[in-house]
Each structure stands twice: as structure tokens, then as C-alpha cells.
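A favour, since you know our C-alpha cells better than I do. Would you make up a two-line entry for one protein for me to read? Write everything out right here, beneath this request.
=====
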Amino acid sequence: MVKHVLTPWRVNKPWWYKMQLFDPAHHAGPMLYFDLDVVIVDSIDWIWQLPLDRFWAVRDFKYLWRPTWPGLNTSVMWWDTSQYESLWAEFNGQGPAAVAAQYPGDQDYVTARLPQSQQARLDYNRVISWRWQALDGGYDPAARQHCEPGAGTRIDPGVSVLVCHGQPKPHQVSDPVIVQHWK
């Protein structure tokens, strides 16, 4: 577990503070990271088995609407921090405000700045979007509605992680599956 005091920055989006995870002054070696709005619903042991020769992250959920979307989502990441010190050096050299003015978010920056050959996507059948793939049977973008309104969270066997990006946050939800696993 890594715990450190964050360096205050003049950025209006708090997700930029995640970039400090790449600062070698705070940690060296393997790191498994979860956003605070991630709900673990089954074993995550499979993540530890992934080779650390690449940077592993969730596939950006935009792929659900745009199948060729190449982006990463930084809600869940697994990497060897010592292999990606250059990412921190470049980010820190430009300055958080300058980078934040150029990229919508940290995941856009990481996707753009890490060579494609170093990027790997976590199993998209095991790490899913709660609101778009599990809540009320999933979301149908063509119909612009959930497939089973009122059904609650439905997860397929093998799903390990629900990413609750956006609102509401897990502690604000009364769905039995989220309540059971949110501890």
C-alpha cells in the first residue's frame, strides 16, 4: 500500500493527482491500483499473474460505442513503476497545468504518451463498467436506455471488478450487489 501526501496542484480535475502514482519518489516496483469507486466482486488473483513487461489497464469504456477506440481507462492499473519513470519525468517537466490544458484527463495522457507496444488491456470480461454493462441488464446505446430497467445489477460469472465511473458512487447506491461487496 502506498500512502503519501499529494503535492497540491492548480488543476480543476482531481483525477490528475493519479499521475503522482508514477513519481518514483513515492514507490518503486510492482503496483496494483484501484480507483475509490471500484467494487471488487470476485477474486482478483488473476491480475497478479499478468506479466509486468507491459502497463496493464482497463480498456476505456468508450469501446462499447466505438469498438475501435484505443484508449485506456485508469480505474484499475497494474504495472512496474520502475519501467515507467519517464512518464512521470515528462509529465512533471511539462507541469500539471500545461498537460491538463492539452488532455481531457490522466487516462488520455497515459494512452497518448505510453508507446502502444507497452500498453496492455485487462480482461474486459472480468473488469466491466457497472452503469453500462451490469446495471439493469446493461445499457443499449441505440435505444438510449437500460436493457432491463429496474432489474438491478446483473453480472456474468467471471466478472471480478465493477468500475462505478461517474455518478452515483458506490456508497450512494442501494443496489444489493453493490451493497454486498462495498465494504
Summary: Residues 71 and 108 are 7 Å apart (CA to CA). The first strand starts at residue 30 and ends at 34.
